[in-house]
Amino acid sequence: MSSTPEPTALLGNPWFVTLPARERAVMLAAAETLAVPAGEMVYRQGDGGGAFYAVLEGSLKLSTLHADGRESILAIMEAGNWFGEVALVDGSLRTHDVTALSACRLLAVPAAVFAACMDSAPFARAVAVLLASRVRGLYGLIDTAAPGGLRSRVARRLLSLAHGDTTPSAAARHTVTLPQESLAMMLGISRQTLSKELKALAGDGVISVGYGRIEILSMPMLEQDARA
Predict the structure, then answer these.
(1) Mean pLDDT by 10 residues, the chain (228 residues)
(2) How far is CA 19 from CA 33, 77, 127, in A?
C-alpha cells in the first residue's frame, strides 16, 4: 500500500494521532475529499448510511430542528475533528443535522472501510474512546443547560469550545471563532441576552469580543466563572 500524506489539520487531533499507523493509512488511502459550500448539509437527521468524516478546513454545526421550527445547535466541528461514527457503529439512522457554517473541505472514509478497521481491536478501542468523549460532551451540554447563573453557563460553553467541543483537546485555545448567534442557540438564549453577558465578561477583562470571534484573555478567570 502506498503511503498517503497525513493532512496537517488532523495531526493536531489527539484522537487521530494515537490511532495505530496501519489504520490511519488505510482510512486516508480510501478517503474521498469533499468540498462543501457554506450552508450546505453533509447529512440530515434520519439519513442512513454515509461515511466517517474528518474536517480539513472550515467549520460545521451539529444541530437538531424542533417541531416548532426552532433550531438547537449541539456542537461546532472545526478543522481536525472527526464525526459520523455513531451511525456506522450501530447501523442506525443519523440523529442530527450537520451543516457547513463556512466553506469546508472534508475527508469521507467509506462505511465499508470503517467497518473493516473496526475488526482491529486497537482501532475498535480507539473508537470506544471517541464515543466516550461524545458522552462526556453530552454531559457537558446538560451541565451547560442546567439551572444556575447565566454567566457560568456562558463560561462553561466557551471553555468547551476552547478545548475543541466535539473532539476535546487538553490544551485550550484562546480564540473561539463563532458567530454570537450560534453561541446563543447553543445556550438556548436570545442573542440580546448573550450580548449582555459577553459585555460583562469583557468588562471584567475575561474576554474580548470581535466580529465572529471571542478572545479569551484570562483562562483562569473564565474557569473560575465556569465553576461559580
Answers:
(1) 73 88 93 96 92 94 85 86 93 93 96 95 93 77 63 89 69 84 87 94 95 92 88
(2) 20, 20, 9
Q: Is the entire prediction scored with pTM above 0.70?
A: yes
Rounded CA Rg of the chain: 18
- In angstroms, the Cα distances linking 181 to 112, 131, 176, 200 are 38, 28, 13, 17
190: Cβ contacts below 8 Å, ≥ 6 apart: 184
Let me know how long the chain is: 228
Taking each continuous run of H as one helix and of E as one strand, the counts in the chain are 9, 11
Per-position DSSP letters for 9-43, written without gaps between them: GGGG-HHHHTS-HHHHHHHHHHPEEEEE-TT-EEE
